[in-house]
Specification:
The complex is a heterodimer of chains A (296) and B (283).
Chain A lengths: L11 E4 L5 H7 L7 E4 L9 H10 L4 E4 L13 H14 L4 E4 L2 E4 L2 E7 L5 H18 L4 E3 L14 H12 L2 E5 H11 L3 H7 L5 E7 L2 E2 L4 E2 L8 H14 L4 E4 L7 H24 L8 H4 L2
Parallel strand pairs in A: 1-2, 1-12, 2-3, 3-4, 4-7, 7-8, 8-9, 9-12
Antiparallel strand pairs in A: 5-6, 10-11
Helix pairs in contact in A: 4-5, 7-8, 8-9
Chain B lengths: L2 H17 L5 H8 L18 H26 L1 H7 L1 H14 L14 H6 L10 H15 L9 H5 L3 H6 L8 E6 L4 H9 L11 E8 L2 E7 L1 H12 L3 H12 L5 H15 L5 H7 L1
Antiparallel strand pairs in B: 1-2, 2-3
The chains are: A alpha/beta (296), B mainly alpha (283).
């Protein structure tokens, strides 16, 4: 088991996306604290994406965020995948490495989506075993993100916070809390998103994601399009109160606007964090204090 | 594997079977029930008020799956998409991803088999050149993210004496592909890239060089002699073999050395050759 290192608060970042490469090459990574890359985009050897990434890495921290590790898959862990990820890690020394609590392939056939894992003792054992294997191979603790889901399983016997608390305790991995995904799942499955966050042990949250979603009436989909909606900002404010200052990233992956627009969202996150933390200091009631401080 | 692990495996198998085909989820689940009785009704294993709810939610994954693969391939093959049109391209991609499910964790590899697949697809029946167009776009993708290595400069050759020329070994940069087509598709690619009226396509083989200069992907048509000479570099890299390739292609032994020198200057200008130090290191 690898112990999850305590991360410095990197501040507020955005995804490094090719639509912004010309701007970044001309102006540098201004007004942003850090970038998150999609790890698999850098499994290739060279070209412009690597040139830009290495240039940015000289100026700001980078976090490697994968989408295809498949920690919940029943397919064997891919040696090729882990070797490729290891090469990315060695080359850019990311602040940390993350992926998702999900699966995405069956019988070696990839669907390139983040698919839900049944939440029960058997799947927990399975995922614990694989997280330990991955952490041994990468020689570092990883961080896993809660995904947006549109179905749940009759075989699930645990809540997701219960599953995540146990997984992180048993493996030393951390949680990337996607606040938008909590909101999406809460709407799709009819639970209280605040109760979800209250059920998470504060010390396991190592990073936060914020993003937009799209409503389809009876359900909503995590589309990463548009600015962060008001209801997600409100949940973020509550998450800061509960988890304290945690490195936070804006995900905007569809209809990507100008660099300045995405960066402005990260500044808004920073302002909300400051406001939420200041609000806590001026109040003294137990319920308003961050659980991290309140915990024994 | 324990009994409960088997159930976990079964859930992933069912889920994958239902979302990796474009058929309506309910139809597909009923069809699979003869082999896997537990798959239908869906409410056996998907939480929710009824089967209609479960099917609706699983359809979300089906739509996202096919949309994601379609969008990725449209981005990789924009000229092919332009030439065949939106509707035919969507149908082609739906067929392709079922015939060639992705076997790589990266979407980058998804289109690798599309040029070969197109040869036998109905969309090519009246346009047999589509496979060549697709192969050109795939070659451009391949060179896009090859490693950046030091290239050969004109001055490095100027410093060689006669003996060194005889032992000179040339190497082509990794970001290079030599493509042989059955149709002259270069003009078609240009028109599709501009979004302008499409020309007719002649059934005439072309040799196309695809490479990257700095971070810009380029391609151009090459003559038969140049193509053979570049193949000689790929095979042995020995300067005299390259000259022999020119002599064989042109039937002109007398001018083979001059032809080779002229081509060499062009290849260096195009940044097609590796620095000789890199060549040695890579040998």
């Amino acid at each position: 088991m690898s112990a999850m290192p305590t991360h410095h608060h990197l501040g507020h970042g955005i995804g490094l996306r090719r639509q912004h490469f010309p701007h970044l090459l001309e102006h540098g990574p201004h007004e942003v604290d850090w970038f998150e890359i999609i790890s698999e985009d850098y499994f290739v050897s060279g070209g412009r994406p690597w040139f830009v990434l290495e240039r940015m890495r000289r100026e700001v921290p980078i976090v490697a965020h994968g989408v295809a590790l498949g920690i919940g898959s029943t397919d064997p862990l891919s040696d090729d995948y882990l070797r490729s990820l290891r090469r990315v890690i060695d080359r850019i020394e990311p602040a940390w490495v993350s992926d998702h609590l999900c699966w995405g392939s069956f019988g070696g056939k990839y669907v390139h989506d983040l698919l839900p894992v049944p939440l029960n003792r058997a799947s927990l054992e399975h995922v614990v075993c694989r997280v330990n294997q991955v952490q041994d191979r990468l020689r570092r603790a990883i961080v896993l993100e809660n995904i947006s889901t549109y179905v749940s399983f009759t075989s699930s016997t645990m809540s997701e916070p219960e599953f995540l608390n146990s997984l992180t305790h048993r493996t030393g991995c951390g949680l990337l809390l996607d606040v938008n995904n909590v909101y999406v799942c809460a709407r799709n499955h009819g639970f209280d998103p605040v109760a979800y966050m209250d059920a998470l042990e504060p010390s396991i949250v190592k990073q936060i994601h914020l993003a937009g979603h799209t409503s389809y009436g009876d359900y909503i989909i995590d589309t990463h399009v548009g600015p962060v909606p008001g209801e997600v900002w409100e949940l973020y404010r509550l998450s800061v109160r509960r988890f304290g200052a945690v490195p936070t990233l804006i995900e905007w992956d569809e209809e990507i606007p100008k660099y300045e627009v995405v960066v402005a969202e990260s500044h808004r996150a920073a302002a909300i964090e400051r406001d939420a933390l200041a609000g806590m200091q001026s109040r003294t009631s137990y319920s308003e204090r961050p659980a991290r401080e309140a915990a024994p | 594997m324990t009994r409960r692990d088997e159930s976990f495996f079964q859930i992933e198998k069912r889920f994958h079977q239902l979302i990796s085909q474009p058929d309506p989820v309910e139809t597909r689940a009923r069809g699979l029930a003869s082999m896997d009785p537990g798959i239908w009704p869906l409410s056996n294993w998907i939480d929710g008020p009824d089967d209609a709810f479960a099917a609706t939610r699983l359809e979300v994954y089906v739509r996202m799956h096919f949309a994601r693969l379609h969008d990725s391939l449209k981005e990789d093959f924009p000229c092919l998409a332009f030439v065949v049109g939106a509707e035919a391209f969507a149908a082609l991609i739906a067929d392709y991803v079922q015939a060639h499910p992705s076997t790589s964790p990266s979407l980058r590899e998804l289109g690798a088999a599309l040029p070969a697949y197109l040869r036998a697809h109905p969309v090519s029946s009246s346009r047999p050149y589509l496979s060549d167009l697709c192969a050109l776009e795939w070659a451009r993708i391949c060179v896009f993210d090859e490693p950046n290595l030091p290239i050969l400069e004109h001055r490095a050759l100027a410093e060689l004496d006669a003996k060194q020329w005889c032992t000179l070994r040339l190497r082509i940069v990794p970001a290079f592909r030599l493509l042989k087509t059955s149709f002259a598709i270069e003009d078609l690619w240009q028109a599709a890239d501009r979004g302008s009226a499409l020309p007719s396509v002649e059934r005439k083989g072309q040799t196309l060089l695809v490479w990257r200069r700095d971070f810009t992907v380029l391609h151009r048509a090459a003559g038969e002699a140049e193509g053979m000479a570049l193949q000689a570099i790929q095979k042995s890299g020995v300067f005299t073999d390259v000259a022999l390739a020119f002599a064989t292609a042109t039937g002109d032994v007398t001018n083979a050395a001059q032809d080779t020198a002229t081509a060499l200057r062009q290849w260096i200008t195009d940044r097609l050759l590796l620095d000789t130090d890199s060549s040695s290191a890579g040998a």
